[in-house]
Amino acid sequence: MTKHWLTSITALCGNPWVTQIALTLYYLGIIAGLIAIYGRGDFSTPPFVYQSF
Length: 53
Hints:
Elements: H1 2-14, H2 16-38
């Protein structure tokens, strides 16, 4: 049973359409994460580490 799943997954990974869709979803996930992090509009720099020296 495991061998059947492994050959199916290997065949899907070799398909250019599946690879392209997976990469598109991956990059859209990265963009969505960046929007979630920086979407508040707070682009101020953090305080300087050595401010008290």
